[in-house]
Specification:
- The protein is built from 12 helices and 18 strands.
- The protein folds into 3 domains: 58 residues; 104 residues, Immunoglobulin-like (Sandwich), CATH 2.60.40; 232 residues, Rossmann fold.
- Helices cover 37% and strands 25% of the residues.
- The strands form 4 sheets. Strands 2, 4, 6, 8, 9 and 10 form a 6-stranded mixed beta sheet that branches. Strands 15-14-13-16-17-18 form a 6-stranded mixed beta sheet, sandwiched between helices.
- It is elongated.
- Helix 6 packs antiparallel against helix 7, helix 6 runs parallel beside helix 12 and helix 10 packs across helix 11.
- By secondary structure, it is an alpha/beta fold.
């Protein structure tokens, strides 16, 4: 590719030739030799351009530039990741080049392309930042470099490096933050409540030395006689219980309230309340992903907490094609979290209706042991009757926690000022939608208090708090 220097040289020759021809015509001077000179200069520039490009290509073949991309095996959805690529050159002279790594289309990138000078016989690290916007497998194609020729007349574009792949998982950065805050006893920063333990657990933990004030009924007399001092049994909260996630993958979970959405216009324009004037409605905060992404992140955080507490965790999906259904049997240990994430990380919601009753029947057949079933969905008032039957069926054996996500855009529409007739219709429709949904929740809450109806950003903390409440109350 010709560089700016080459373009300027061609323009200079053309301009000079044009001026000379105009002057010669004005003075009635023969212009044949001027055309010859102009053509000769242009031909010499072409020869010099080709020679410069050929010599540069020969040098690159003799001392090729190597490319190494240092990247993890997995990324977290919505979290910025810094990547480092290394350019290796063993030649005796430096290269001026531009680097552009072929980042997958489902990732945003920053600090690319990068203009660098690669010193002779050296390695150079180039850093840039990417942010995944979609879960699943991602493929990095070989990078592209544009090398400036020795005389600066041409840019040679090359593809270097190898194809590499990685997985984009749900936002496991939230797990690391939870673990750090839990160790530092600052969980309130992310909305996790801490409670003073009241009473004692029922699971035996260990034997310990008696301290005045401890209940004498917990003294282990046999152990006390053996050790010749008072020994008591210490207990902990109930463990070895089961938490089962029932994850909705239907069309309602495709809602995306990020500014601009993931694939198109804002949610206000896609929402049933939206219309021709949806773009003038106020924009809400930027969320970390779609409702399904947020539900998956919350499920991973609650799974981590439950596994740390000694419980088993499993999951089952519904609301999409049966061939895509995922089932993960309850398992214990932190290795189960990695297996659960690997099982669910690439699943996407479908544009079909979710059959709650069929999902409840499937769950009853698969999970025989009494468990805490966490239903993650986004239901409307028209789903109330079907969902009520499904909950009634599951509650014959399990303790069911219904967690539903609500659209923040509806509250924003309801709270907007009324400026014209269209505004009156929008606000009235939003209030009608909220009231119908609230009435449906009151019907369900009349038979079971384990209900959660929150915006996506609050789901993770709310689920963890409800889980802790269930454990303290020993409802399982």
């Amino acid at each position: 590719m010709p560089t700016r220097r080459t373009v300027i040289a061609v323009a200079a020759i053309a301009t000079g030739s044009a001026i000379a021809l105009l002057v010669a015509k004005a003075r009635d001077i023969a212009d044949a030799h001027l055309a010859t000179v102009g053509g000769g200069l242009f031909g010499a520039l072409c020869v010099l351009f080709l020679a410069d490009a050929a010599f540069t290509a020969w040098q690159l073949r003799r001392h090729p530039i190597a490319f190494e991309r240092q990247m993890p095996s997995a990324f977290a959805l919505g979290q910025p990741h810094g990547l480092v690529v290394t350019l290796i050159h063993e030649g005796p002279r430096p290269w001026h080049l531009e680097l552009f790594d072929h980042v997958p289309a489902t990732m945003t990138q920053r600090l690319l392309p990068a203009s660098v000078v690669l010193p002779p016989a050296s390695k150079l690290d180039v850093r840039y930042e990417i942010t995944p916007t979609q879960r699943g497998k991602v493929v990095f194609e070989p990078a592209a470099i544009r090398v400036r020729s020795r005389l600066g007349l041409a840019d040679l574009q090359l593809r270097i490096g190898a194809v590499q792949s990685a997985q984009v998982y749900p936002n496991f950065a939230a797990l690391a933050r939870y673990a750090w805050l839990a160790g530092d006893r600052r969980l309130a920063e992310i909305g996790i409540k801490s409670y003073i333990a009241r009473g004692a657990g029922t699971d035996f933990k260990q034997l310990g030395e008696y301290v005045p004030g401890m209940p004498t009924r917990h003294i282990d007399w046999n152990a006390s006689f053996r050790h010749r001092r008072a020994v008591v049994r210490e207990f902990q909260d109930d463990r070895d219980q089961s938490v089962m996630f029932l994850l909705d993958c239907g069309r309602r979970m495709r809602a995306d309230e990020r500014s601009g959405g993931r694939d198109g216009p804002p949610l206000a324009a896609q929402h049933p309340l939206g219309g021709a004037d949806a773009d003038r409605r106020p924009r809400g905060p930027t969320y970390d992903g779609s409702h399904f992404d947020q539900a998956l992140n919350a499920a991973m955080l609650l799974a981590y907490v439950a596994l740390k507490d000694g419980d088993a965790v499993g999951a089952m999906t519904f609301g999409h094609d049966p061939s895509q259904q995922r089932h993960f049997a309850p398992a214990k240990g932190m290795a189960a979290l990695n297996a659960l994430v690997a099982r669910l990380h690439d699943i996407e919601p479908s544009p079909t209706h979710s059959d709650y009753l069929a999902a409840a029947r499937d769950l009853m057949l698969r999970v025989r042991r009494r468990s805490l079933v966490v239903v993650l969905t986004n239901f409307r008032d028209e789903d109330c009757e079907e969902l009520e039957d499904a909950l009634r069926l599951m509650r014959t054996r399990h303790l069911v926690l219904l967690a539903s996500l609500k659209e923040g855009v509806v509250a924003e529409i309801a709270a907007q000022p009324i400026d014209d007739a269209r505004g009156i219709v929008d606000v009235a429709a939003a209030h009608w939608f909220q009231n119908a949904r609230a009435e449906a929740f009151r019907r369900l809450a009349g038979k079971n208090q384990l209900l959660v109806d929150v915006e996506p950003s609050m789901l993770a903390a709310t689920l963890v708090n409800r889980y802790h409440a269930v454990k303290r109350a020993r409802l399982l």
